[in-house]
Specification:
Elements (H helix, E strand, L loop, with lengths): L1 H14 L6 H18 L7 H17 L6 H17 L7 H21 L8 H5 L9 H9 L2 H9 L8 H31 L5 E4 L17 E4 L3 H31 L21 H9 L10 H12 L5 H20 L6 H15 L10
Antiparallel strand pairs: 1-2
Length: about 375
Amino acid sequence: MEYAILALSTAAFERDGAFEGQSLKLYTRGLYELQKAIDNPKTRLDDQTLAACVLLGMFEFAECPGRTVSAYMRHYQGAMALLQLRGPEQHISGLAHDMFQVLRMHTAFQGLAQGYENQLAKPTWMDGPWISKTKTMHDLLLDIFLQVPKLLSRARAVPASQPSQARLNGGLKALKALLDLNEQLIQWLESYQYTYPTTHWPELSTASSSTDSEELGRLYPVSIQFPSYHVAETMILYWTVQILIYASISTLYTRLTSSDKDITIFEVDDLSPKGNDGISLAEIQPILDTSDVMSWPETSARYICQSVEYFFQKEFRGMGAGVVLSPLLVVKACLSRSAEDFSREITWIDETIGRIQGNGAGLAACI
C-alpha cells in the first residue's frame, strides 16, 4: 500500500514540476507488490491489499499513463472482486470502510454504463457495512443512486414502437418506479436542507469559454458557490441523480403518450393502494405538471455546469476536478439524447473536460 500512496503523492508534485517520472516508477513497484499480496493467501484479503488496489486505480484515474481506460477498469474490477471475497461484514469500520465507500461511489457511476443492478445495490451490501454506525446523508443519497441503473434498464426496455397493452403495462410500471424513486430523492433533499438550510448560492462567474459571444452572451454568467467542499460534493451528486431520474421519466412519458393517446387506463398489478384500481397516464400527468420533471435539461444540467467553477479552485487541486468529471459526462449523455438543440452546452462540457484533464484527472483524455 505504501508504494500506491507514494505514487499518488509524487504525481501531485510532478504536476508542480518536481520529481519528474518518479510516480510511474513507484506505481510500477506498487503493481508488483500488489500482485505478491494477492498471490499470498495470508495477505490476499487484508485491508491493505484492498486499499492498494483502490489507490493504484486512483493513480490511473489521475495520471492515465497508458492513455486508455482499460487499466483503470482492471483495478476497479479487481478491487470489486476483493470486496466480494471479503464480504460486507469486513467493511464496517476503519480503512476497510473508507475503501468500500470509494468503491461504492465508483460503482454507482459504473452501473450506468453496465445497465443493470450491481452487487452493492443488494440489501446485504446496503446494510451490512453500517451495522455498527448510522448512515450519513451522503450515504443515503448513494443508496438512492445505486437504485438508478436497474430502473434505467427497465425504462429502456420499453419499446418505442409496437403499441400494445403489455408494452403500456410495462411502461407504466417503469414510470411509476421512477416517480417513487424521485419521491425518495425529494424527501432526502428536505432532510438535507434541515441540516444545511443554505446549500448553495449564485455569484457572478469569472470563467470564460469559447461558447461566449457578443450575440448570445455568456452561456453560464453565474456560478454556484457552496458553504463547504463536502456540501458541494453532495449537491453535485444530488443533481446528477436528479437529472438521471428526470431524463428517464421525461423520455419514457413522452414515448408512452406519443403513440398511445387513445388508451387511458388499464390494470397494473401492485401499483394502486388497493391493488386493483389500476393506474393511467392521465393519473400520472398531474404529478408531472406540478413538478420540474419535464424541464430536466434546463434545471439539473445547468446546476451541475454552474458548479464546476467552484471545484476548480486551487485549494482543491486535482480532487475537485475528479469530482465533476463523471457528473459532466452524465449531463453530456442526457443532453445528447434530447430532442432539443444543446450543441452549445455540449461544446462547453467538452471544453471543460479538457480543463479537467489538466487539473489532475488524466483519464478525462481517454473518454
